[in-house]
Automatic annotation (TrEMBL):
Naturally occurring in which organism (per UniProt): Chitinibacter fontanus
GO molecular function, one term: L-glutamate gamma-semialdehyde dehydrogenase activity
GO biological process terms on file: L-proline catabolic process to L-glutamate
Residues annotated as domain Aldehyde dehydrogenase: 535-709
GO cellular component, one term: cytoplasmic side of plasma membrane
Protein name, per record: Proline dehydrogenase family protein
InterPro entries linked: Ald_DH/histidinol_DH (IPR016161), Ald_DH_N (IPR016162), Aldehyde_DH_dom (IPR015590), FAD-linked_oxidoreductase-like (IPR029041), PRODH_PutA_dom_I/II (IPR024089), PRODH_PutA_dom_II (IPR024082), Proline_DH_dom (IPR002872), Proline_metab_enzyme (IPR050485)
Record keywords, A-Z: NAD, Oxidoreductase
SUPFAM superfamilies: ALDH-like, FAD-linked oxidoreductase, N-terminal domain of bifunctional PutA protein
Pfam families, A to Z: Aldedh, Pro_dh, Pro_dh-DNA_bdg
Amino acid sequence: MHSSNAEIPALSPAFTNLAQAKYQDEQSAARQIQDACQLSAEQSLRADAMGHLLSQKLRIARQNQAGIDNLLSQYPLSTPAGRALLNLAEAALRIPDHFQLDQFIEEQLHAADWHQHRGHSPSWLINFATLGLDLAESTHTPLTTPIFREAIKQALRLLASQFVIAEDITAALQAQNPDFRYSFDMLGEAALSPEEASVYLERYTQAIHQVGAYSQGAGQFGPAVSIKLSALCHKFDFLHYQQVHTELYPRLYQLALIAKQYDIGLTIDAEESHRQLLTLSLFERLMAEPDLLNWSGLGIAVQAYQKNALQVVKWLSQSTRQQHRAITVRLVKGAYWDSEIKWAQQAGLANYPVWTNKTLTDQSYLACARILLQAENRIFAQFATHNAFTLSTIHQMAGAQNCEFQALFGMGETLYQLAHELGIERPCRLYAPVGAHKELLPYLVRRFLENGANTSFVHQVLAEATRPELSNSASQHTLRQPNKLFLPRVSPALSDLHHWPDFIRLREDLNAQKKQRYIALPSNYIDTDGNTHLKTITNPALTTEIVGQYAETAFNEIETAFHTAELAQKKWQALGVSARAVLLEACADALEAKRVLLLDLLIREAGKTPINALQEFREAVDFCRYYAAQARSDWQHSCPAALGIVVAISPWNFPLAIFVGQIASALLAGNTVIAKPAPETPLIAAQAIECFYQAGIEPQVVQLLLGGESWVRL
């Protein structure tokens, strides 16, 4: 691995527990949280009654509003209309070319039947918008196109304004509602360059100074600031651990010192799961800083949809006890569920880092809440929720303890105003984005995804056909494991290199593998001079490192290879599709058994990064199993006539996946194969061919020719 990766330290015992819980089995993990989130019978009755009452009042209050919740109740993301609106929200304000934008809008307008939605919403504004979409879809002409384009862009800007309190922090402070507390967030996503990180640092610094001056020592009762670590460092990921701790931590520490100077809250926002342990390692350093010990405003957000959330809050509680200090913890359910699921599936992991069942997220939230409330004198708990049942349950669970609720600006005000009217007088802090509307798009899309799902409380509370209490139902379907999406075909369960234990384990395996010197010999090779003519392969990233050696196929051996393949072809074809598929699946198993060896060669011979090497390894294994499954399915009764001998010449850029894929497809069709890899990567090819042989495929059926610079003329 790269030298910078060697600087990533081993896991501490405390972090080992957090890391192990991240990918734990969902069913066994569920049993832990179910026992921890139970209320007494009396508390449950009170919470349930209050939740129902709040839901009913909230439905009535919101039916006449025109917010995003009403919009998504009318157009759920499970419908073509909902998806069309999501696409418009994500892209319409970012496409500068009018022609391209007009084509995009026309495409989205035709993607749904807007007419069927006319007049169905209790909100006159939503009905008016539906009428406009219907007319735009049916009367789209060159004359009306500019009008519709500007109308849609203006509508999206108005929608965006629901979520942004102001464009700058000065205006945001003046726009505060005295009924709420506030935590201000500077709009924007992860920094993509050092220059962007510096801009975000300056914005955060100015915001803390201005909020601090405004607060005048109000402490937890006054406004606070939230920060994203990915905005402060363009390399904020685990594989850049040392750079993050060297470059980002001083910036974070400086921001914390300024916030302490004013005695305001400074909360580190939660981000994607692959950044969780890195974030906690930085927060651990902050908690231990002597200059920050007598300040309770240091805060961090915990996402209950992560399967190790309960272990995280227990670790935070234990750390505050050991260090005799106080912190703030914002408990949220999570805002990146869709991307977390897709990322785990694309990476081919064995498990998800988040709960796949919405009910388990709710239970995890309550289990975490109990731990936070038990640490009352050390942790000031902030419970972020828009769910009336969760709000009522937390209120019962907290009793007389000091805590606060939180909600998103533009979404939670009505719920908490109603709760206050019903006697729940705990303070609510609004998470309020600050910035230009053009920076809102990623945030807006996350809100669409959160509240447009059928399982979301916001959607259910406004759907007349759905009882809101079904949000607590345990009947939801759980997803297949990421590497088992296409059963009965199973993809190899890959390591997550952003997961601390997986990274350390793979680093140790690869370091041990580096001691091996590889030799690749072609088929029908005869050593006539004691291997003195072998050519050397070096690491393209470290040219002084010898990876192995190989022998070129002599020009006169090519004809022998063709003759051998011709003799073996009829027997191989007569074997039948089913038998050939079994052998290809055995080859996939052999490839998996050589996982570390192949990854080592992909990194050191082909010059790939560890992540790219893992992806290519998975693709090679998948080729064998996918082709075998397709052949069984498509060629049950008859197989296409074999071509005879197939010469498979593969490139250097995918020396394992393309090499194996070409051979596997040709073999399944009944052909014998002469495989000729790129001269830059003979070692990988030789190991792959060995897997075919280990699977039981005879050497005469698949032959390897190496070299080519001296004899191949294409």
